[in-house]
Amino acid sequence: MAVIPVERKPLTLAERTYIPQIVHGLKTTFRHLVAPNVTLEYPEQRPEIPGGYRGVPTLVRDPNGREKCVSCQLCEFVCPPKAIRITPGEIAADSAQAHVERAPQAFDIDMLRCIYCGLCQEVCPEEAIWLQTQYSMTGYTREEMVNHKDRLYELGGTLPDAHLKWDKKKAAEDAAAHGGHH
Asked: Of 16, 13, 9, 107, whose CA–CA distance to 58 is shortest?
């Protein structure tokens, strides 16, 4: 195998002194000195969150403050990294929400495992789990990064409910109790 030498043109005097490269670097530096500042002073300044952003998954309540989750466990089943753990619980028979059948006794999301894919929100039939726009979840220990049911409701808050499952069933029960007359 023959080695073919590459012919290189000789450097000029200016190129040998690196003056053009130094001038080019200084030009870039001065251009940045007079340009407007693009750095955000986080956390005082927060970036604009784009539409469709998938942030921290949380549990939400309906407008009346009731739990929307019915422990169907679809979100736990569909979660790719298995970050969601649900312990189903029963609702007392004498409760006003007894017709809902179940509510979660425990609902945990391990934020160290969560990949923010949004499948939990898509699969939820009750629209009880939502991805919020919060993006800075921190903690000093692994235990602090597991959001339990009370923390998930605290982060999620209340969202409008398109289903109003309790109210529709209550209206149907009232109509049946009164013989369908208003």
From this structure: 107
